[in-house]
Please model this.
Amino acid sequence: MFCKFSAKTSFRACLYKHICGRNGSNIHPSTRIEEIVLAHALCSYFAKALFGVPEIPVFFLDNTGILLLFCIASAQAEEVMEMKLLLIRHSLTQENTRHCYLGCRTDVPLCTEGIRLAEQRAAALSVPVPELVLTSPMQRCRETAKILFPDAPRLAVNGLEECDFGAWEGKTYEMLSGDPAYQAWIDSGGTLPFPGGESREQFTERCCNAMEQALQNRTEGYLAAVVHGGTIMELLSRLEQQQLPYFAWQIKCCQSVLCTVTERMPLRLRAEMPAKTAFQ
Model:
């Protein structure tokens, strides 16, 4: 998997070469205790840096024991990696019903219709209650999460907010029709920055970094994230293994996409198809 292990190539050397890109034979610990401490440190580093598992305890072991220690860490890592993440778009707001650009500058609650929709989705929920619900700090996401999963712990994560639409915040397509800057943005396929707001690249980096950090040291096997439509599209278009385009992941309010976290660092996702399985 990493490099060939044989009687002539110590486990310590294999692991050190994989992590540091250097020849492990250059390391010459003066005592057996130092060798064990080094092997433990490398095992712990590997398990934590690549898989996010907690530090493994120190044991005084022979070569076979050190190899066993690494195998245990790998097994722990494999178990931790099997994490499910249910991405849910928040329910309706008044601005959503008017088809406004509703970004991170406008913190509004759910409208009456949105509360009713979330309650209907909660009653029809076909998935277990998540061990933890991540949310955008925006009120519409926190309210949706509370209705859907009233008994689950919730954690607001900065960076998962919707895009900053700048000068177009709160405006509709009809209001912007005829604006040359808006037409240029449409012609670009949405790749130009919003005037006074974020670019696609800035938005993508913010969302992906926030989610990656939020999941890095989690030990739960099943989480939900109640966020925004744009946030979900950015996460999946960048991190999902099929590499589908941005608008392929567009979903309606209170719909969801169930994913498996296949890697923590860098974060990688595998979406289960068809999408919106949790609320169908």
